[in-house]
Specification:
By secondary structure, the chain is an alpha/beta fold. Helices cover 38% and strands 17% of the residues. It has a seven-stranded parallel β-sheet, with helices on both faces. Strands 7-10 form a two-stranded parallel sheet. Helix 2 packs parallel to helix 3.
């Protein structure tokens, strides 16, 4: 039986394909839009059975052309939080997802999909409740609206539907994302190119580099998805983060000290890195004021209740592992 992964050449999608391969799964249909042809690199070391363009796939899937499908892992979306074309965002993220959901329910195919912590907006409570959801941008709204569609469908669903609200994901295979790549990726490249890292300065009662996010390794994201793939009886919408909030300063320092270790240099404290000019701060961008999540922290109680018990990587270990992978690929 095939497993279908949409957004397969993207960041999380390609990590899911690679994780499936590691388990011996190769009957994988990869679906994506390779208008940005450079994304092929994310699949070049993966084993798949077929590739389809997203525009060709949806009608064929709804017709049942692929026979018995074990599951559809829907990761395809525009993930830019600064995209202002609402018509494009809603068509790409909401309407396309609705069509896939309806086809999956009709065919009885388990449907695992990517939601986002952006649905919570500027709130300070990150629980899977309607009262906590206040998106700040059209990206967050597109994810929020689809989650509402799923909530209405779940009581009548006869096959698995599981959505994962990804928090700040970082890890290998995100190089194509440009500005939307993780802060860990940008810090790594800044330090390699200039010998220092620059973070946002103070904003919203948070000190320079002190804005708090739930940073989650793509390794953990893949593990959670595969856990639910193995348990098709489990449905719902779940936060997928580390369950802890850490400052951007922690990410920058983990990058700096990992790269210093490659030169046999001793690790530095945050204060020492700032004094040495290895970490500096810039003015907070005006265009992000009022549209920026200063704090996120996933409440992962529902995920734990659903049976996922594995520990999540913290920034210190996860970012170090990521930096070592980037160095190996350089």
């Amino acid at each position: 039986m095939s497993i279908i992964v949409t957004g397969a050449a993207g960041f999380i999608g390609s990590n899911l394909v690679k994780a499936l391969n590691a388990r011996g799964e190769t009957d994988i249909i990869a679906v994506d839009d390779l208008t940005d042809g450079d994304k092929f690199a994310n699949l070049a070391d993966c084993d798949i059975s077929d590739y389809l363009d997203k525009r060709d796939f949806i009608e064929r899937f709804a017709r049942g052309d692929f026979g018995v499908v074990r599951a559809l892992l829907h990761q395809g979306a525009c993930s830019s939080t600064v995209e202002r074309d609402g018509r494009y965002m809603m068509d790409n993220n909401y309407r396309y997802s609705v069509e896939l959901l309806e086809a999956s329910l009709s065919l009885g195919v388990p449907f695992l999909y990517a939601s986002s912590a952006a649905v919570y907006g500027g709130g300070h409570e990150f629980r899977e409740l309607r009262s906590c959801e206040r998106p700040l941008n059209v990206y967050g709204y597109s994810k929020f609206l689809f989650d509402q569609r799923v909530r209405r469908a779940l009581p009548q669903a006869r096959s698995q539907v599981a959505g994962f609200r990804y928090f700040n994901v970082y890890g290998p295979r995100e190089q194509h994302k440009g500005r939307m790549a993780s802060v860990a990726f940008h810090c790594f490249n800044q330090f390699r190119e200039t010998g220092k890292v620059t973070l946002f300065g103070e904003y919203g009662d948070y000190p320079a580099g002190g804005h708090l996010r739930d940073f989650v390794s793509v390794e953990d994201v893949a593990r959670v998805n595969l856990h639910f793939l193995d348990h098709p009886e489990r449905s719902g919408i779940f936060n997928l983060g580390s369950g802890r909030a850490q400052p951007f300063n922690d990410v920058a320092l983990a990058v700096i000290n990992t790269l210093r270790a490659q030169q046999d240099l001793q690790p530095l404290t945050l204060d020492a890195a700032v004094r040495a000019g290895l970490l500096e701060y810039c003015a907070f961008p005006d265009e992000l004021r009022g549209k920026y999540q200063c704090y996120t922290c996933a409440d992962i109680a529902l995920l734990r209740e659903a049976g996922y018990r594995e520990p999540m990587l913290g920034v210190e270990e996860g970012v170090e592992r990521y930096c070592r992978a980037l160095l190996q690929a350089a």
